[in-house]
Amino acid sequence: MVLSEDLSEACGVFGVISTTKEDIFRKMYWGLLSLNHRGQQSYGFVTLSKGGFHKKEDLNLIPTDPREVEVLASSLRGNMGIANARYATSGGTGVRHLQGGKQPLVISSHGRQIAISYNGNIVNAAKLRKTLHRKFGKFKTDADTEVLAKQILLSLEDNSGNYEKAVGEVLDKVEGAYSAVLIDSLDESFYAFRDIRGIRPFCFSHSSSLFAFASETPALDINGFRDYDYVDPGELISVARNGKMTRSTVRKGQPAMCAFEFAYFSRPDSVLNGTNRPVYKIREEFARSLARTYKKKLDGIDLILSMPETADDAAYGLHEFTGLPWERAVRKNRYVTRRAFISGKGERDDVIDKKVNIVPSLVRGKRLIVMEDSIVRGDTSKANIAKLNAGGATSVDLFVTFPRITNPCLYGVDMATYKELIGARMTPEEIAEWLGADSVNFQTIEGLVSSIGIDQKNLCLACVTGEYPSKTAQQIADKIRTLQKSEPKSQESEKRVYERNF
Ligand code: SF4
Questions:
Q1: Which of 136, 198, 206, 459 could form a disulfide with 211 if both were Cys (CB 3.0 to 4.6 A apart)?
Q2: Do 195 and 286 reside in the same domain of the chain?
């Protein structure tokens, strides 16, 4: 999937266990391929067979050339495996850093070897690094995965290899978002666990002989599973080689599922926990909510357009609700994709400009409502609105399914500086002027929450409210806000807020 603002997530994870002797690579491959939208900078597979761990990884997208896939299949033997499609939200983004940050990570200590793959971001990684450095020596990478893996090894040592106790300790000590799958070669068992807030999605399914865990349900669908369950916040699930599955809530916390998953990240055909309906149905509801909130804006409108592809479902919802025509006159060139290594702003602008094409004859002389999923940096919207204006549109009113983003994300979405957030610097009116639109109409927080259908207290909305569901994240955000007031230029830092030194 090509993402409209080139926003990316920390990762997609997949894990699979067969109780038969069959190799599970193909199931793992299809599962991870269904999650490639969650991370496109690197991918990796690890399997466990009698011969130990087998690992294959590389930068960029998961390969689809059958010859490359066969090479992977021939070397990834075993009936237990985990996989990861990664985007870096910790550590550097140069080639060397991305190489070092590839997941799954295989790491050992005192005769125990584990492989781990996770989705999310660790907020207090800098602090944990200091303690873990004293215990394990120098870190090999600047990615959070090594922090999480080493904390698990340390907690296992301190708790005589008892996973329930060790993961409980990890959940206490490691603040942030993590949906993790892990294989331990010592007891040949598989483990899945999720942070106490359940910020990132995490689901699983099983038959009598096959178990699969994934960031999103389409990775289960593609493997033939029809019923899903979810790894609960604070839960540890273990699956032994003989298929014995054990579930235990090792810590309890206040759930805080990422609201942005519904507007942008998750696949439209995903069913996220707590909703019982596919994400695209929620996106249609976002549009109905916008129509109710901005009823007057609908007067005299000729046409609804959507910025493809994440706003298509909302555009359809608005069309269905209002009866206004919807034209797909904005088309994405799916081969102009975000690349892992855009070297500078000029190159980035060039790519943005080439990603979307507009059919001018359909917009000429028309008053338009343009549906957008969200506005983060605004550069993609600006480029597209310029094309609509050049194509002769009479007016362009933007409907945005997600509220104005005013605060960075510290939990694994690639918007971790204030500088990049247009909503942190400008009012909706100023944003409209900068974009070249007649108006910008953001979803209200109430509209977002009621459309999702999850109680507000169980959602993370920090990027739109400034209220973070975890303590260190709130402290970091408060600190930066204070700095902004005393020295406004401080918000111009290019560094991710959780990686800054105060
Ligand atoms: S801050 Fe926003 S993007 Fe980040 S986890 Fe919370 S809702 Fe999601």
A1: 206
A2: no
Indicate whether 341 pLDDT > 50.
no
What's the number of domains the chain is made of?
2
Nearest-CA residue for atom 8 of ligand 1: 258
* Residue 402 CB contacts under 8 Å (≥ 6 apart), including other chains: 259, 260, 263, 264, 286, 373, 374, 375, 442, 443, 448, 464
Measured in degrees and rounded to the nearest 5, phi and psi for residue 447 equal -65, -40
What is the percent of the chain where pLDDT is above 70? 88
Specify the residue with its C-alpha closest to ligand 1, atom 6. Answer: 460
Q: Is 259 in the pocket of ligand 1 (CB under 6 A)?
A: yes
Which of the two residues, 502 and 404, has the higher pLDDT score? 404
From ligand 1's centre to the CA of 260, what distance in Å?
A: 6
11 classed as catalytic: yes
CA of 455 to the centre of ligand 1 (A): 16
Is the pLDDT at 1 greater than 60, yes or no?
no
pLDDT tens sequence across 98-157: 666 777 999 999 889 999 999 999 999 999 999 999 999 999 888 899 999 999 999 999
Query: What's the alpha-carbon Rg for the chain, to the nearest Å?
Result: 23
What is the distance in A from the centroid of ligand 1 to the CA of 460?
6
Does 411 sit in the ligand 1 pocket, CB within 6 Å? Answer: yes
> pLDDT per residue over 80-107, tens digit each?
999 999 876 555 656 766 666 777 999 9
Same domain membership, residue 42 and residue 135: yes
One-letter identity of residue 467? E
State if residue 452 touches ligand 1 by the CB under 6 angstroms criterion. no
